Amino acid sequence: MLNRYPLWKYLLILVILVTGLIYSLPNLYPEDPAVQISSDLALDERRITQIENALTDADIQIKSLEEQNGQWLIRLRHPDDQLEARDILSDILEQDATVALNLAEATPGWLQALSASPMTLGLDLRGGVHFLLEVDMEAALTQRLEVNASAMREILRSERIRYRNTEIDERRLSFDFASSEDRDAARRLISREFPDFDYESPGEDRSASLVMTLTEQSINEIQDYAINQNLTTLRNRVNELGVSEPLVQRQGPDRIVVELPGVQDTVAAKRIVGATANLEFRLEARPDTPSTETETLSFRNEPSRTAELMRDVIITGDSVSSASHSFDENGRPQVNINLDGTGGTLMNRATRTNIGRNMAVLFIEHKTEDRVVMEDGEETVVRDPYVERGLISLATIQSALGNSFRITGLDSPTEAGELALLLRSGSLAAPIYFVQERTIGPSLGQENIERGLMSVIVGLLLVVAFMLIRYKVFGIIANVALALNLTLLVAAMSMLGATLTLPGIAGIVLTLGMAVDANVLIFERIREELRNGLSIQQAIHAGYERAFTSILDANITTLLVAVILFSIGTGPVKGFAVTLSLGIISSMFTALLVTRAMVNLLYGTKPVKKLWI
């Protein structure tokens, strides 16, 4: 009875192995490159035939054509044909439909019913885009000064302190007053509410001014807030894009890295990720409002049409808690807005006292324009930032508004959808600019996969050959366990939704070597016990029992290293750590339990005269 398991243990091992096999199967069915057609109008048979003929004439092989939830999905044989297929379909359908690139699941239905899905591939294997973004820290300071200036003007007006104009110059904010008494009174009021400034009072009597300069501490706090808020906003936007396993992380003091695996429509991704749009809600100026408190702005869709607005802002897009796009009663696109508690209070306070007055929605977008200049005989690209402002709508306040209302006057459903997305994900605390853009094509990703698989196969074959030559029958048992270990590792990564990258493949190769390490210890121990004169059954039992401590110590220390790598590492390092951790766990199971079960079934039920090891 030394080398026998109870029935329940055999059944448990069998259930785990069968489950692992089932959940590793989806990886045999990689996603198909596809083109997706979305249209409000049903595509008839004539149009479908026209599409098929056009793709065939362009020598683009179609794998299948299917309809899903009112959308048509055309699966292609080769990923290199996607862009050409999209252009052809866009020309055929024109404005009747939206054509987008897609990667369609190819997992059989019975596996999907079991919630089985393939591993997610990283940027280096799947292809995608890599963006390096730079946060405009000076713009962040300017924006904060503008918000502070608006709040200060509100305080001065409420206390009836007269001021002439407001100026923002780099990191300074200044007010001009009619007299030094007004200036001193303003300084006492403002300094209590805004302690983040150093205050100066140049000039006397008629030329009295109050100059406020941001302190170094407040500058650092604003810049840290800007990049952290931008990180949060970018993560929200990327999640809205539906990208699997994106990477959004800080790099250095003012840069952010964004990696989007599987994204092939780089123009759309860049437009959404890099959009620095925000909204401002302002009241239209009254005829008797001083010119220093107003500014004239034009409409986005009608540049010749203008309106004069108050400089003070009621709320910005930062106060939006949720947004969705739909259509109004006339079929025109609109965005439905829900404000947070503070935003709803400010909106209600501004509108209930201004019923009958017009309120404008101002769309603000930060952009850059590159120009080439000659410096020391070399061409250098200089980036000039600029701001585009345009009115979306100007509507009369019919009643006091609360937390919910809608924005109309948008040009298209696409514009409404993108505006709703940007408002949902939050606005950027400072403009961001693209410093670097790198695209990894699907073909390069496929080449990485093929080379990674080749490394796994070569490593597997070398290990298999060594075990067969060294341990004969027991080598066969170890190799079967090694194959099962690889299957369980793939199944675990698929079930957990872990991302497979090139470093992850390196972790798999390392796991293959470590998986047989335990078997080597066990088999060598059995040999030693046989030389010491134990019987075959006693040697097998002693080999597994006495090698257990060494195997556990070696694997626990490696697992601790993998956990540390995962906790302090980023990107590729984490991918390696995840694969290594799962590989250690699965190799412990197969080396200690699975091989023991096979040895028990082979040798534990009958007398053995010679052991082939």
Automatic annotation (TrEMBL):
<keyword id="KW-0653">Protein transport</keyword>
<dbReference type="InterPro" id="IPR054384">
    <property type="entry name" value="SecDF_P1_head"/>
</dbReference>
<keyword id="KW-0813">Transport</keyword>
<keyword id="KW-0811">Translocation</keyword>
<dbReference type="InterPro" id="IPR048634">
    <property type="entry name" value="SecD_SecF_C"/>
</dbReference>
<dbReference type="Pfam" id="PF13721">
    <property type="entry name" value="SecD-TM1"/>
</dbReference>
<dbReference type="InterPro" id="IPR055344">
    <property type="entry name" value="SecD_SecF_C_bact"/>
</dbReference>
<feature type="transmembrane region" description="Helical">
    <location>
        <begin position="452"/>
        <end position="469"/>
    </location>
</feature>
<dbReference type="Pfam" id="PF21760">
    <property type="entry name" value="SecD_1st"/>
</dbReference>
<dbReference type="GO" id="GO:0043952">
    <property type="term" value="P:protein transport by the Sec complex"/>
</dbReference>
<dbReference type="GO" id="GO:0015450">
    <property type="term" value="F:protein-transporting ATPase activity"/>
</dbReference>
<feature type="transmembrane region" description="Helical">
    <location>
        <begin position="580"/>
        <end position="603"/>
    </location>
</feature>
<dbReference type="GO" id="GO:0065002">
    <property type="term" value="P:intracellular protein transmembrane transport"/>
</dbReference>
<comment type="function">
    <text>Part of the Sec protein translocase complex. Interacts with the SecYEG preprotein conducting channel. SecDF uses the proton motive force (PMF) to complete protein translocation after the ATP-dependent function of SecA.</text>
</comment>
<protein>
    <recommendedName>
        <fullName>Protein translocase subunit SecD</fullName>
    </recommendedName>
</protein>
<dbReference type="InterPro" id="IPR027398">
    <property type="entry name" value="SecD-TM"/>
</dbReference>
<feature type="transmembrane region" description="Helical">
    <location>
        <begin position="7"/>
        <end position="25"/>
    </location>
</feature>
<dbReference type="GO" id="GO:0005886">
    <property type="term" value="C:plasma membrane"/>
</dbReference>
<feature type="domain" description="SecD export protein N-terminal TM">
    <location>
        <begin position="2"/>
        <end position="101"/>
    </location>
</feature>
<comment type="similarity">
    <text>Belongs to the SecD/SecF family. SecD subfamily.</text>
</comment>
<keyword id="KW-1003">Cell membrane</keyword>
<dbReference type="GO" id="GO:0006605">
    <property type="term" value="P:protein targeting"/>
</dbReference>
<keyword id="KW-1133">Transmembrane helix</keyword>
<dbReference type="InterPro" id="IPR048631">
    <property type="entry name" value="SecD_1st"/>
</dbReference>
<dbReference type="InterPro" id="IPR005791">
    <property type="entry name" value="SecD"/>
</dbReference>
<comment type="subunit">
    <text>Forms a complex with SecF. Part of the essential Sec protein translocation apparatus which comprises SecA, SecYEG and auxiliary proteins SecDF-YajC and YidC.</text>
</comment>
<dbReference type="Pfam" id="PF22599">
    <property type="entry name" value="SecDF_P1_head"/>
</dbReference>
<dbReference type="InterPro" id="IPR022813">
    <property type="entry name" value="SecD/SecF_arch_bac"/>
</dbReference>
<feature type="domain" description="SecDF P1 head subdomain">
    <location>
        <begin position="297"/>
        <end position="430"/>
    </location>
</feature>
<dbReference type="Pfam" id="PF07549">
    <property type="entry name" value="Sec_GG"/>
</dbReference>
<feature type="domain" description="Protein export membrane protein SecD/SecF C-terminal">
    <location>
        <begin position="435"/>
        <end position="601"/>
    </location>
</feature>
<feature type="transmembrane region" description="Helical">
    <location>
        <begin position="547"/>
        <end position="568"/>
    </location>
</feature>
<feature type="domain" description="Protein translocase subunit SecDF P1">
    <location>
        <begin position="227"/>
        <end position="284"/>
    </location>
</feature>
<keyword id="KW-0812">Transmembrane</keyword>
<feature type="transmembrane region" description="Helical">
    <location>
        <begin position="476"/>
        <end position="498"/>
    </location>
</feature>
<dbReference type="Pfam" id="PF02355">
    <property type="entry name" value="SecD_SecF_C"/>
</dbReference>
<keyword id="KW-0472">Membrane</keyword>
<feature type="transmembrane region" description="Helical">
    <location>
        <begin position="504"/>
        <end position="526"/>
    </location>
</feature>
<dbReference type="InterPro" id="IPR022646">
    <property type="entry name" value="SecD/SecF_CS"/>
</dbReference>
